[in-house]
Model the fold of this input.
Amino acid sequence: MRKIMIASALAFVTSGIAIPASAQQTGGGLITVQVSNVDILRNSLNKNDVDILNNLLNNNQIAVPVNVQVPIGIAANVCNTTVAVLSAAASGGKCTAQQASGALGQAVSKQYLRKS
Done:
């Protein structure tokens, strides 16, 4: 019985089930989330990060929209859509944020505000 279970698991893993190409576009299942309204980020960033963001925007060091790469589940959440929709080739691996989350705020902080 155990050999059958192992064989079944091995067959499943090697059956060619693939992650859609659009979910792989940015590598590791990341989706590009476009933040057109940076005001939605203000509640998901700490005061220091909000100050840094304001400074970067005011000095034209970053431009709106801000694009960040996040895991597909986070992208689905902040873009008010589903993982299935984002996985479809038509999405192009991108979406526009409709709301913020702590995870989106952390991604913006890492990718824009904490660059060395």
